[in-house]
Design goal:
GO molecular function: 5S rRNA binding; structural constituent of ribosome
CATH topology of the largest domain: Ribosomal Protein L25, Chain P
Structural class: alpha+beta
InterPro entries: Rbsml_bL25/Gln-tRNA_synth_N (IPR020056), Ribosomal_bL25/Gln-tRNA_synth (IPR011035), Ribosomal_bL25_b-dom (IPR020057), Ribosomal_bL25_C (IPR037121), Ribosomal_bL25_long (IPR001021), Ribosomal_L25_dom (IPR029751), Ribosomal_uL5_bac-type (IPR020930)
Subunit structure: Part of the 50S ribosomal subunit; part of the 5S rRNA/L5/L18/L25 subcomplex. Contacts the 5S rRNA. Binds to the 5S rRNA independently of L5 and L18.
Protein name: Large ribosomal subunit protein bL25
Distance between the termini: 64 Å
Helix content: 25-40%
Family: Belongs to the bacterial ribosomal protein bL25 family. CTC subfamily.
Radius of gyration: 23 Å
Order of helices and strands: HHEEHEEHEEEEEEEEEEEH
Shape: elongated
Strand order of the largest sheet: 2-4-3-7-6-5
Strand content: 35-45%
CATH superfamily of the largest domain: Ribosomal Protein L25, Chain P
CATH class of the largest domain: Mainly Beta
Length: about 260
């Protein structure tokens, strides 16, 4: 059971329907911050020639059905009432269609995001009518951590979409190095039904001074980079203590030579 699963499980057992939305929001905040990536995601990266291919299980190929309801009431008061009832206000738009205002079931929607990430593709059942949609934006309250609103984008099978995908940094760089992740996401274009859940940049024994840019990252087949190729994703630097030790050793050698 992952950290996110434990948080949501505890919320389901301990909270009422009105408070559950806060726990779900906190779960999504954690997910957006990248806490659900590989345990080594903060440690290191391997230069692109040494990266392993991304496995098929990292590609979201399945859609999840979600029964939703249309809503006529709008405004802050209506949104607060919806959240107390365990519903998430949302709007569906795209492909020249008129915006459709919806209520999403909070528990089921949180489960979709936990399973598929923030680029989840959902097969919406809108009161009996099916519509494929991409989770475009999840707005979370900055202090209380509940989901305030969701934007859903109408998509069609076979079309390409541009999304931001989380970068997961794995592995241990060479001793005496400090790995700094400068970009937590990169923007790519992919088939709507084959969006990578994350992009792995793997470091094992990488030396200090290595810089990995977006253009160096290996992408799955059918996925193309739309971020600036020069975007710095990961930098492997010399650790401060190692640099200080080297400087002290150099000074010692200089002193001995002077004698």
């Amino acid at each position: 059971m992952t950290f996110g699963d434990r948080v949501l499980y505890a919320g389901c057992r301990c909270l009422g329907e009105g408070d559950l939305i806060t726990v779900i929001g906190a779960t999504i905040v954690t997910l957006l911050r990248g806490a659900f990536t590989h345990p080594g995601a903060r440690r290191g990266v391997r230069h692109s020639p040494r990266q392993e291919p991304i496995h098929e299980e990292n590609i979201m190929s399945n859609t999840t059905k979600l029964a939703v309801a249309t809503r006529d009431d709008k405004g802050k008061g209506a949104a607060r009432r919806a959240r107390r009832e365990g519903k998430v206000p949302a709007v569906l738009y795209g492909h020249g269609t008129d915006p459709v205002h919806l209520h999403l079931p909070a528990r089921e929607f949180a489960a979709v995001l936990r399973a598929n990430g923030t680029n989840a593709v959902i097969d919406l059942d809108i009161e009996g009518k099916s519509q494929l949609a991409l989770t475009k934006q999840v707005d979370v309250h900055p202090i209380r951590s509940y989901i305030e609103h969701v934007d859903l984008l109408v998509i069609k099978r076979g079309e390409k979409v541009t999304v931001e995908v989380t970068v997961a940094v794995e592995g241990d760089a060479a001793p005496g190095t400090l790995v700094v992740q400068d970009a937590s996401v990169i923007e790519v274009e992919a088939d709507a039904l084959s969006i990578p859940e994350h992009i792995v940049v793997d470091v094992e024994g990488v030396a200090a001074g290595t810089a990995i840019h977006a253009g160096d990252v290996t992408l799955p087949e059918g996925v193309t980079l739309t971020s600036d190729p020069e975007l710095l994703v990961v930098a492997v630097n010399e650790a401060p203590q190692a640099a200080a030790d080297d400087e002290a050793e150099a000074e010692g050698d200089a002193a001995e030579a002077a004698e």
